[in-house]
Amino acid sequence: MPFIEKYKPDVLCLQETKAQQHQSEVDLPEYEEYWNSAEKKGYSGTAIFTKEKPLSIILGFPEDIAKKYKLNNHDGYGDPTTEGRVIAAEFPKFYVVTVYTPNSKEDLSRLSLRHTQWDPAFLEYMKRLEETKPVVFCGDLNVAHAEIDLANPKQNVGKHGFTDEEREGIDNVLEAGFVDTFRHLHPDTEKAYSWWSHFANSRARNVGWRIDYWFASKSLTKKIKKAEILPEVMGSDHCPVLLELDL
Question: Hey, what CATH class is 2-245 in?
Answer without folding.
Answer: alpha beta
